[in-house]
Amino acid sequence: GTENSSPVRIPVHLLGPVYRGLLLEARTFGSTAALGSWQTPPNNTRFLQCSGNPQGAITHSNTEFKTKQTYTWLPPASGCPSVISFVATVAQSHEIYWLQIKSKVIWRDPNATCGVERYTWTFTVVTLLPLHLLVLFGYIY
């Protein structure tokens, strides 16, 4: 049978103290290229062109405190890798920041075809610190 599946959207949450600055992107093993694209960034954040991709990363648009924001990622339409992880750099102030925080990996369903129209991911529960969520970053003082 034919499956009609809408584009997969993967919510990414940054859990930890409030922060002012951020750089968030998706990558695959052994590559620094930003993968896929992000949906409309939440308040106080904006797109950042990364690896020639105008929606390849999200960064802050001001230094207001940010907390409990959800960033929504869309897989690439072609050349989709079998595994991805999210990488964030988060700044609370000029003196306090966390570089290259990585989420656990997410595996693409081996039966999935490439392309945003029909693309599924197999999720594992991500556990980091005492917190767990689908895709999760944790950072501590």
TrEMBL record:
<feature type="transmembrane region" description="Helical">
    <location>
        <begin position="119"/>
        <end position="140"/>
    </location>
</feature>
<keyword id="KW-1133">Transmembrane helix</keyword>
<protein>
    <recommendedName>
        <fullName>Reelin domain-containing protein</fullName>
    </recommendedName>
</protein>
<keyword id="KW-0812">Transmembrane</keyword>
<feature type="domain" description="Reelin">
    <location>
        <begin position="1"/>
        <end position="119"/>
    </location>
</feature>
<dbReference type="Pfam" id="PF02014">
    <property type="entry name" value="Reeler"/>
</dbReference>
<dbReference type="InterPro" id="IPR051237">
    <property type="entry name" value="Ferric-chelate_Red/DefProt"/>
</dbReference>
<keyword id="KW-0472">Membrane</keyword>
<dbReference type="InterPro" id="IPR002861">
    <property type="entry name" value="Reeler_dom"/>
</dbReference>
<dbReference type="GO" id="GO:0016020">
    <property type="term" value="C:membrane"/>
</dbReference>
<dbReference type="InterPro" id="IPR042307">
    <property type="entry name" value="Reeler_sf"/>
</dbReference>
